[in-house]
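Figure S4 source data
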Amino acid sequence: MPDDMTARRAFIYSSRFGDYSYGTEHPFKVLRYRLAYDLIQELGLLEGDTNLFVESPSASEEALSSFHSRDYLETLREFSRGDGNRANFFYGLGDVENPVFHGLYDWASLVCGGTMEAVRQVVDGGCRAAFNMAGGWHHAHAARASGFSYLNDAVVAIQGAVRRGLRVAYVDIDAHHGDGVQKAFYDSDRVLTISLHETGDDFFPQTGYPQEMGRGKGYGYAVNVPFCAHSDDLIFEQAFKRVVRPLLSAFHPDLLVTQMGVDGLRTDPLARLEFTTGALEFAARSFLDTGIPWVALGGGGYDEVNVARGWTLVWGVMNGMEVPEHFPPGFAATLAEIGADSLLLRDLPRLAHPDDFSRAQAFLERNLAILERRLFPLHGLSPGAS
């Protein structure tokens, strides 16, 4: 692999990411992609010889059908040709969660193609890392839309890498459990899936418990660390150091794919975690420090300014460029136009209330005990390894 300081980083993007809409009342706003891109560009984070800007291609039907059923793809394509007044609840299409809109299939194919291109840039293109912030649709299943996700870009791209003989680690830090990716590789020992998320006790998708460890050859290769509500950066960092780092070291993957959802930030409207942008930067630096070829995907995030801030900081870590504390003038003016009043690009440090922290710590320790007792020995690890 090229030296970290000289190797290229690929930024996968298309202005077409913002050409579609889930609807004005839906929490998933495609405006977040343009805001993130505008902030990254104004800060000069796409400049330099080591930064490669790549227009996102569309995924072919052949590539999509390597995971998704052809009947589901045909229904998705047919529905996206109309005005959106269609539904097929067997496939999870047309409800409030996963609305149908004109051009849906083309847009989903474009996003999925971006993740496939990110993997290609890292595996074949000599890039140290690649970022497709539109990717990370981790809830989609082979024949069903779920959780705002229509096509599972991570699964399609990872399957392609596995067919080439690569071992892949997938780490998901979104507030929601990466259930679709876990299910796709639940029987495989070629893909290690790790998800750090808010507990599914009363939170979508109601999965992601430590006891979910894989099946058959895949037993021990599905890893889940749930957090209770109000977990903060200290809880996140403990989980990361005690689970993610040792397992990545033991698994020795050829490729690292991460889902960098920002809905764990304390001001996200859909989750109840209390992370700050410091947790995102900590995770990004940790992924970079592994030295493993790295593909980062976007994922969740339902406050557009949080998304722009979070993914800008992730990209800054990926390409080793400094990110200032304040928004640049042009972006600040854009925020004023949309009624946002944020000034700082990074969150100020913040800890949970002591009582909340105590509950979160106890919850974490119970879950880590299960993993360290039942899963760590399968990878030759002892409790406390980091």
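Figure S5 source data
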Amino acid sequence: MINVTKSYLPDLEEYTNYLKGIWERVYLTNDGPLLRDLEAQMKEFLGVKHLKFCTNGTIVLQMALKALDITKEVITTPFSYVATTNALLWEGCTPVFADIRPDDFCLDAAKIEPLITENTQAIMATHVYGNACRIEEIQAVAEKYNLKVIYDAAHTFGASYNGRSILSYGDISTCSFHATKVFHTVEGGCIITDDDEIAQKLHFYRSFGHRNDDYYSIGINAKNSEFHAAMGLCVLPKVPNLIAARKQVFSYYDTRLDFSQADGRKIRRPTLTPGVDYNYAYYPVVFESEEVLLRVVDALKAQDIVPRRYFYPSLNTLPFSVGHQPCPISEDVALRVLCLPMYPDLEEVDVERIAMIVNEAVAVVSIE
């Protein structure tokens, strides 16, 4: 079976060497030495000032909202993983959905300003599939209306924009280190800021708001363990090579999928934002209709190949969200977008087979 993603695992001996140190120290969690080492290495790798390694990519979104005192309306994207909206709802905020750009599927800065009210406090945007939003445009709107900017940058580790890590932008940026990501710690995430005061808040938020017997603020349990940090320390040095391998798989797809418009065969990919050095986190394709997508999915699954409708559905249509706020572009794209299998050691012959199945399924629908 070929799944949409496959986790990278380092050499087992390399990982167990870290485990031996954990056994010797009997220090398993709570801001341990491996965690601190990983944080330091990640800060250097990304070129950021403050970074806190936490338990996952969702809790860091919640911490971001809390640290910035966001309690009211947040303008956000409908085209993201559900965690983006869940974090807002969980923290008692009101998500206000602005539609996406039709080319890169990121939050459309031009759609933000008409939605701003006296209750708007922040913008929460997602760098979709690891591709940067129009950062300057979003920042200009935020500065005009004195809004905070939080980036859900779950997909962007190793990607840069104008020579800087995409994670370095915004008041706060968050990332996921789930097992399927470009860089992973099995489970995990991080929260990043340049602001010293916010960083201090986040430090205490992560650990119940206290240090030893001194209590400084409210807090939550967002600590991660030495075991997860050990995995991160093994994987981090491999990230450049993993991205290079992903780039090669990406190119295999590019040369084998039929992007021509002949005979009604319509497959396209989202465009990259100018200035982005991509990390090849995903390989999304968009079909002419949901009917074509479903035909492709069935054809792939018949050959034990599992793609993913990522992102689906459009978050503004969730039954537990705050009413339906129309976002026609997102609603349309969410019905037609599919992520094909993408991981560093996906063989060229397998990509060729996947592409052939996709091309044939699209051609069958077009002929019908």
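The domain at 239-367 is CATH 3.90.1150.10 (Aspartate Aminotransferase, domain 1). The chain has a mean pLDDT of 96.
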